[in-house]
Write a structure and sequence with these properties.
Oligomer: single chain
CATH architecture of the largest domain: Alpha-Beta Barrel
Strand content: 15-25%
Number of helices: 13
Strand order of the largest sheet: 3-4-5-6-9-10-11-12-13-14
Number of strands: 14
Order of helices and strands: EHHHEEEEEEHEHEHEHEHHEHEHEHH
Bound molecules: S-adenosyl-L-homocysteine, iron/sulfur cluster
Length: 345
């Protein structure tokens, strides 16, 4: 099997180069070319042909090529459909904020978790992405937009904690000076709540922001839309979130997609406030984005307002995401290929 060059950290790259009989300083040269976006050894002008041959024969460099691109009419949000070498495609979204440029990337092609409101969940699972394929999405977005990416959100297609090793490897890579050098505080990982992996993540020494998709105030309602609720009850999930805060010092964000008549009553808000009481957290309320075939629709404005009022009245920080925010959710990993193609016409 060929070595995935861009998934290696600098020490591993150095080991590969020296173990194959090349001098150590060549590792720095190769790393520089990779960082500059070289897609083949041919482009690495200052390395000798025997090392070029070695790379060509025994290694590969992951690239994400733009299959489709959409620019939002309302703001400058850009959505990409990227293709990898095997033809699999994922979505990434570039968002512009006052404080910088964020990219929302995918961690898997599809998802195994099967949340009933989610287009990715409904389209099944194909495979997990490698660390280099996650990196390639950022690099391609950066190259195309001409802007330096300052924030990364792992909220596209897939469940990041179901691809734990590759995701942690990716975070360490972007974090390092040899790569994009993006700080942990500028990285957010969103999960549907794989409890053991939340504990593991807390121990990695990477104080990234954690977002947890809650979407309900109790297990009964949660299980209606999220099969994972039957595996990890909310009590255990919230305990893991408290541990995450205690270990990393990072406040956890709870994502709550408001679905008309499912999870948006005042009683739901009161119950949620009770359960989150005393936690250092923030609740992001997102009117659910309607996905064909789910039968769900977004909560009415009056429900959104009442929900946020109840939470805030009980001391829970909460915001309703609209405009750009709702655009992000509508775009990031939630549209199926069919839909994308339709939009392109
Ligand atoms: N698998 C991870 C990250 C990808 S999904 C997770 O579930 O957290 C990113 C976010 O989009 C999650 O909060 C998810 O619940 C939310 N989401 C999925 N489908 C949605 C929809 N139709 N409307 C609004 N939010 C949705
Ligand atoms: Fe997977 Fe997240 Fe979609 Fe659920 S919401 S199916 S965990 S991508």
């Amino acid at each position: 099997m060929k070595t995935d060059l861009k998934s290696l950290n600098f020490d591993e790259l150095t080991a590969l180069i020296t173990e194959n009989g090349f001098p150590k300083f060549r590792a720095r040269q190769v790393a520089d070319w990779l960082r500059k976006g070289a897609v083949s050894a041919d482009e690495m002008r200052n390395i000798p042909s025997d090392l070029k041959n070695y790379i060509q024969n025994y290694c590969y460099i992951s690239v994400a090529t733009i299959e489709k691109k959409f620019v939002s009419r309302y703001d400058k949000t850009v959505k990409y459909l990227f293709a990898f070498a095997d033809g699999e495609c994922v979505e990434s979204v570039v968002m512009h904020y006052r404080h910088g440029t964020s990219v929302c990337i995918s961690t898997q092609v599809g998802c195994k978790m099967g949340c009933t409101f989610c287009a990715t969940g409904k389209s099944g699972f194909s495979r997990s992405l490698t660390a280099s394929e996650m990196l390639a999405q950022i690099e391609a977005a950066q190259r195309d937009s001409g802007e330096r990416i300052s924030n990364i959100v792992l909220m596209g297609m897939g469940e990041p904690l179901d691809n734990y090793d590759n995701v942690v490897r990716f975070i360490r890579l972007v974090n390092s000076e040899d790569s994009l050098n993006i700080g942990a505080r500028h990285i957010t990982l969103s999960t549907c709540g794989l409890v053991p992996k939340i504990y593991a993540l807390a121990k990695e020494g990477l104080p990234i922001n954690l977002a947890v998709s809650l979407h309900a105030p109790n297990d009964e309602i949660r299980a209606r839309t999220m099969p994972i609720a039957k595996v990890y009850p909310m009590d255990e999930l919230l305990k893991a979130c408290r541990d995450y805060f205690d270990t990393t010092g990072r406040r956890v964000t709870f994502e709550y997609a408001m679905i008309d008549g499912v999870n948006d009553s005042d009683e739901c808000a009161r119950e949620l406030a009770l359960r989150l009481g005393g936690m250092s957290c923030h609740v992001n309320l997102i009117p659910v984005n309607t996905v064909e075939g789910t039968g769900y629709s977004k909560s009415k404005l009056e429900r959104q307002q009442s929900f946020v009022n109840i939470l805030e009245g009980r001391g829970i920080a909460a915001t309703v995401r609209r405009t750009l925010g709702s655009d992000i959710n509508a775009s990031c990993g939630q549209l199926r290929r069919k839909h994308l193609k339709k939009e392109d016409k």
